[in-house]
Structure formats: C-alpha cells, structure tokens
Amino acid sequence: MKPTDRPVDQPTPERPFDADELLGRILTEPSFPAQILIVAARLMASSTDPINPWTLHQRLTTAEDAICGILPDPVRTDASSRARAALPPLGGAPQWQYATTLREIAGSL
Q: What total of structural domains would you count in the chain?
C-alpha cells in the first residue's frame, strides 16, 4: 500500500488528525440503531400492506445488513438490539404509516 492509497479522511502529515472535525461528524450523524430504523422505514414507505411480524423482521434484517454488515459482531448485535427495543407495537397499521413512526423514533435514538 502506497501512502497515496489511504482513504481521504485518514490523517496525513499534510493534513493531521482534527479531533474537532471528527467530533462534529460523530455528533451530527445518526446512531447505528437510528440508521437501521431509517433504512427499514424507507423499505416500508411505499407499501399499503399491513405490517406484520414477518415483514418487520425482513425489513429490519435488510437494514441491519446494509448498515452494520462490515462492523464487528458485538457492535452489530448492540445496534440491532437497541433498534428492535425501540420498536412500537405493530397494531396492523399500513407499512407506510408504521414507517412514519419508525422515522420519528429514529430521531430520538
């Protein structure tokens, strides 16, 4: 690996590590559990079918793979557990309506 092959956001002698910049990024990006709920909501947004446990599980699993697929297992497990713990009751609402609720919850995670 040549020094020029580093990812753009990695520190270099010409551009040293900037803790303030990194902290700003961390504080403005949604948490992994929030990102899982946001992606799951996007997957449900256009469906008028009622939400059910199987569909919800499929959407969450797809979102977890997309968001946490390359992360270590403990991080993935924690993010998944926190996202699933925040889920509202199903209640048979249409998926698009449940998706709206998921987006609201994601904002508080």
A: 1
Q: What is the pLDDT of residues 49-83, one digit of tens each?
A: 999 999 999 999 999 999 999 999 999 999 999 99
Distance from the Cα of residue 35 to its chain's centroid: 2
The answer to whether residue 91 sits within a structural domain is: yes
- Say if 22 falls within a structural domain: no
Please answer whether residues 87 and 44 qualify as being in contact, where contact means their C-beta atoms are separated by less than 8 angstroms.
Answer: no
* Rounded Cα distance, 56 and 105, in Å: 15
Tokens of 107: 């904002």
Residue 76, in any domain of the structure: yes
Q: Could you give the 3-state DSSP secondary structure of residue 50?
A: strand
